[in-house]
Amino acid sequence: MKLYFAGSIRGGRADAALYARVIRHLKERHSVLTEHIGAPSAFPTVEEGMTDREIWLQDMAWLRESDAVIAECSTPSLGVGYELATAQALGKPVHIFFNENRGFLSAMLAGDPYYRIHLYRDEAELFRALDQALETL
Amino acid sequence: MKLYFAGSIRGGRADAALYARVIRHLKERHSVLTEHIGAPSAFPTVEEGMTDREIWLQDMAWLRESDAVIAECSTPSLGVGYELATAQALGKPVHIFFNENRGFLSAMLAGDPYYRIHLYRDEAELFRALDQALETL
After folding, report:
1. What's the predicted TM-score (pTM) here?
2. What is the interface pTM, i.e. ipTM, of the complex?
3. With an 8 Å Cβ cutoff, is A86 touching chain B?
4. Which site among A8, A97, A106, A112 would you substitute to test the B interface, given the most B Cβ atoms closer than 10 Å to its Cβ?
């Protein structure tokens, strides 16, 4: 499957290393279109020298091409919120993962019955939830 | 006009007092459906005792009812990103305000030609941009 992994970039890179581990895990059996989101830099290399319009066009093309969206939502991000609403408009299955130790997930996501929400408390629980989500796709 | 003001709640309340000043300004000549977003508490009173589903239903009803969306995006927020993509799907005019001193606005918003983006550096500039945006509505 082609997966669109969504995680924060300009909203904050506190979870960049976690994104990288999730992406590596997903790539064991699937293709991840947005692999750059796990890059260690503040602004992933693929976006360097690209205009905002070019980044948006690229990401929207990947979103349309994807079979499903996997979003790690523990760091708040305008772009991820936008991507999840857009994924819904495109009819893509969306699985959202949120670390409960970080507060409360947005009511716009948690309250919208379209999304499959997975709350977790540690990384082992996250990876189990990821595997279970992938099995349903 | 009926305005839907969008600002961060669970993403962080660092700008709650600013939201209150923007809402007070908007209310001089318009009606603001989401006035609770300027409340000083971490979780605005109107949401106390409501489930996530009830909050989402309420906000989606207000979004459909609104004539335009005014979003202050300096604090990253999943919910605001979701609301802005949904506002676009509903064909609502959307004006986004972002304080340049706070970093870079999401490429998903800055790169999407649908939105009117207003960058500002201080509150006087924000209020001038707000007035200009309101005149175009």
Report:
1. 0.97
2. 0.96
3. yes
4. A106
